[in-house]
Specification:
Elements lengths: L3 E11 L6 E12 L4 E5 L6 H9 L6 E6 L2 E2 L10 E4 L11 H13 L3 H6 L1 H21 L15 H13 L5 E5 L7 H18 L2 E6 L2 H7 L2 E6 L2 E6 L1 H6 L4 H6 L6 E9 L6 E3 L4 E2 L3 H6 L7 E6 L4 E3 L13 E10 L3 E8 L2 E8 L9 E6 L5 E4 L8
Parallel strand pairs: 3-8, 3-9, 6-7, 7-8
Antiparallel strand pairs: 1-2, 1-4, 4-5, 9-10, 11-12, 11-14, 12-13, 14-20, 15-19, 16-17, 16-19, 17-18
Helix pairs in contact: 2-4, 2-5, 4-5
Length: 389
C-alpha cells in the first residue's frame, strides 16, 4: 500500500485546428491517503480519466510531480510503478482462459527467460507455484474459481469484470487504478458489483483511485470524493460533507438524485428580525444564524439551492416544519418510485422538483400545498457561484 500525491499537475494539449492550448488538467493538487478508496468524479471532459492515466504512466504530464509513496514517478515507466489498472472494457485476451488471463502478467514479470528456466528448474517451479497460489486465491475471493478454464466469450459481463479485477489483484500492487469499471454492466449488476468492490477494498486495504461520471457510484463507494470540472478540482471531501456543505453551485448540483433545484430569481430583503429570501413565488425565513450571514447581501440577488428531499407535501411534512407557511404550487408531472414519488411543480415562472411521501394525494394538473425546509436551503453568490451559507 502507498499514498499517492499529485502536486501542481498540468496536462496541456494544443488544439490542431485553432492552435490554442487546452488545459485538460489544470493545477491539480491532491493526496490520496495510504489504503484509501478515493473517487474522481465529474462530467465527461472534466479531466478525471486523464489524471488517472497520468498516475498510471500512460499519459505524460506537462508539468508537476506525481509521487507513489515517497518516490517521484514522473519518469518511471508504467510497469515499474507497482500499480494495477482495471479498464472500462475489461481488456481480456479472448484466446486465453480465465486462469491464463489472470496469470499471464505475473508470468511476464516473475518468470525468467526460457534458457534461465531450463538452467534453474527448481526456482522456476517455485515461481510457478507462487503464481498458481495467487491466481487461485484471487479467484476464490472473487467467486470465479469455477470459471478458470473458460474463455472470456463464455462469461457474462459481471464475470468478465471480476476476471479483470482478479488480474489486477494477483499483482499485489501498491495502488489500484479503476477507470469506470462498472459502466458496461446493467443496472442491477452494477449495484451488486459496487457492493463487491467495497467489500474487496475492505478486505485488501489497497490504495484505490476510482474514476466515474456516476455520482451515485461516487457517493456509495468513496471514502472521499474529488469533484472535477473543466480540469479543475472543485472540492475533495467525504460524501456527506460534499452533499451537505458543497463549496459551489457545481458541486451542489452534481451530487444528489434528483439534482438540486436552483432558484435564480431570489433577492435578500430586509425584515424586522433579519433578512429573508424572496423568490417572487415564495419567501424563505431563515434561522437567525443564517440570516445574519446574509446581512451584507440585503438588496442583492442570490441563487437559492433546494434539494428535492427538502420540499414536502404539507400533509406529510415532518413535525419540525409544522409552523412553516405552506406554498401553493401546481403539479405538472408525478413519477411514482415506490417508496417515494418525484413531483415536478410550478409556482409562477419557477419550476421545482420535489421528492415526497409515496402516499401523497397530489394529482397532475391540480394544485398542491408544499412546505420547504428553509434551513436546509443553500444560498450561493450569483456572480461567483460560490456558497454563502
Amino acid at each position: 500500500m502507498a499514498r499517492v500525491t499529485l502536486r501542481n499537475i498540468f496536462k496541456i494539449y494544443t488544439d490542431q485546428q485553432t492552435k490554442k492550448e487546452v488545459k485538460a488538467v489544470n493545477n491539480l493538487n491532491l493526496e490520496i491517503r495510504d489504503g484509501e478508496f478515493l473517487v474522481l468524479v465529474g462530467p465527461s471532459g472534466c479531466g478525471k480519466t486523464t489524471a488517472l492515466r497520468m498516475i498510471a504512466g500512460l499519459e505524460e504530464i506537462t508539468s508537476g510531480e506525481i509521487l507513489i509513496g515517497d518516490r517521484v514517478v514522473n519518469d518511471v515507466p508504467p510497469r515499474d510503478r507497482n500499480i494495477a489498472m482495471v479498464f472500462q472494457n475489461y481488456a481480456l485476451y479472448p484466446h486465453m482462459s480465465v486462469y491464463k488471463n489472470m496469470s499471464f502478467g505475473l508470468e511476464l514479470r516473475m518468470l525468467p527467460n526460457l534458457l534461465q528456466q531450463l538452467a534453474n528448474p527448481g526456482e522456476t517451479k517455485r515461481i510457478k507455484e507462487e503464481i498458481d497460489k495467487r491466481v487461485r486465491a484471487a479467484a476464490d475471493t472473487l467467486s470465479i474459481a469455477h470459471l478458470l478454464d473458460r474463455k472470456p466469450k463464455q462469461l457474462s459481463g459481471g464475470q468478465r469484470q471480476r476476471v479483470a479485477l482478479g488480474r489486477a489483484i494477483v499483482r499485489e500492487p501498491q495502488v489500484f487504478l479503476m477507470d469506470e469499471p462498472l459502466s458496461n454492466l446493467d443496472a442491477k449488476l452494477r449495484v451488486q458489483t459496487r457492493a463487491e468492490l467495497i467489500k474487496l477494498h475492505r478486505q485488501l486495504g489497497v490504495t484505490t483511485i476510482y474514476v466515474t461520471h456516476d455520482q451515485v457510484e461516487a457517493m456509495t463507494m468513496g471514502q472521499r470524493i474529488a469533484v472535477m470540472k473543466d480540469g479543475v478540482l472543485q472540492q475533495c471531501d467525504t460524501p456527506l460533507k460534499l452533499y451537505h456543505e458543497p463549496v459551489n453551485m457545481f458541486v451542489a448540483g452534481f451530487l444528489g438524485t434528483p439534482s438540486m433545484n436552483f432558484v435564480h430569481t431570489a433577492t435578500v430583503v430586509k425584515n424586522g428580525a433579519g433578512p429573508i429570501i424572496d423568490t417572487g413565488a415564495f419567501k424563505l425565513h431563515l434561522s437567525e444564524e443564517k440570516a445574519n450571514a446574509l446581512r451584507e447581501y440585503v438588496g442583492r440577488e442570490v441563487v437559492v439551492g433546494i434539494r428535492p428531499q427538502d420540499i414536502h407535501d404539507k400533509n406529510f411534512a415532518p413535525s419540525h416544519l409544522t409552523g412553516q407557511e405552506p406554498i401553493r404550487m401546481s403539479v405538472d408531472v408525478i413519477e411514482p418510485m415506490g417508496a417515494v414519488s418525484t413531483i415536478f411543480l410550478n409556482a409562477g415562472q419557477q419550476s421545482l422538483v420535489a421528492e415526497v411521501d409515496a402516499e401523497t394525494r397530489a394529482k397532475e394538473g391540480a394544485p398542491l400545498d408544499v412546505v420547504i425546509d428553509p434551513n436546509a436551503a443553500h444560498i450561493f453568490d450569483k456572480e461567483t457561484e460560490q456558497t454563502i451559507i
